[in-house]
Design a protein that fits this description.
With 352 residues, the chain is an alpha+beta fold. It folds into three domains: 3-120, DNA Primase, Chain A; 124-232, Alpha-Beta Complex (DNA primase DNAg catalytic core, N-terminal domain); 238-352, 3-Layer(aba) Sandwich (Dna Topoisomerase Vi A Subunit, Chain: A, domain 2). It has helices spanning 3-19, 23-30, 35-38, 62-65, 79-87, 91-102, 132-144, 155-163, 257-267, 277-281, 303-317, 340-351; strands at residues 45-47, 51-58, 68-70, 74-76, 175-185, 188-201, 207-214, 228-230, 250-254, 271-273, 291-295, 298-299, 321-325, 337-338. The chain has a four-stranded antiparallel β-sheet with strand order 1-2-3-4. Strands 5-6-7-8 form a four-stranded antiparallel β-sheet. Strands 10-9-11-13 form a four-stranded parallel β-sheet, with helices on both faces. Strand 6 and strand 7 (207-214) form a beta hairpin. Mean pLDDT is 83; it is low at 1-10, 108-126 and 348-352. It comes from Thiocapsa rosea. This is Primase-helicase-like zinc-binding protein. One of its GO terms (molecular function) is zinc ion binding.
Amino acid sequence: MNPSRLHMTLDARIVREHARGRWIGILGRLAPTLAPALARPGRHVPCPVHGGSDGFRVFRDVAETGGGICNSCGPRRDGFALLMWANAWGFRETLEAVARDLGLDTRQPRTIEPRPRPVVVSRPADDGGKDAGSAEAALRRVWSETLDPDDRQALPLRRYLSRRGIDAEPDPRVLRFHPGLAYYEDTRRVGTFPALVAKVSDAEGRPVSLHRIYLDRAGHKAPVAHPKKMMPPIGTLCGGAVRLYPACVTLGITEGIETALVIRQRTAMPVWAGISATLLQRFVPPPGVDLVVIWADLDRSGTGEQAARALRERLVSRGIRVALHLPKGPIPEGSKSLDWCDLWRLDLRAAA
């Protein structure tokens, strides 16, 4: 037998076992477009790939299996298959992403410890509840509690942006500050933290979710497992973005909000943030945009570059001009990636 194939099979077995019972969190983090379905296991919601009103659902045992079914494409029996379908990933890319999310090092043999089957519980009210009505209410509540970035209480946000080398002024209609937002891991409330809160709009410009970056008082990311989280959306995220500035004939697009702000600061170009490589790949520019400038992330897995190239290919096929920029490496030792925010901050340090 091919040794590399055996290694891949062993890795898949290990990762699958550790993912059992945790698929709701894994899928929500790696494929945010699945969030409406994950909030309502067993219930039909708009398909994250095809749109519509009720063409998709995850299975009731999604926490255990990670599976779901599209009315057009058929069932995806486990979380690996569902991620491959939702994100247009290959198996190896999916396996590595799930392993990283679980904090596993699949390069080393591990003994699988038996785990009890967990009790499946509802998502916390903080993340939107079980249906679209409560999800919308949660979004409205969180947004109503936010403050202008210039507010005196928003010092942690201003410190966070300053640490990333950003002094561009964000639009308070899109990006705001929450002085104390509850943070949950699955159903367990971990604590309350200040947070950057950004409005996420769909391809038509309608607000559908809020993206949160949890912080500490000193302006660092909060000491939690996943400081960046998307609230369950009330519509499809495919094609959407955080619309940080009004678009014109030229529009920049990035993965991260921080990168978008620093590009704006350096170029005066209107820039939107796609939030993740998955959503960046599916970004749809609004009517009137003639040139899309993709400011891609450079990461060791190649995910950011692959998503950027896929977006470029799709937009060019639709007659839209595209420019693609990648940071010039290398990626710093000990870092997983290099984005434009990192690059320019390193340049500033070198010039100091």
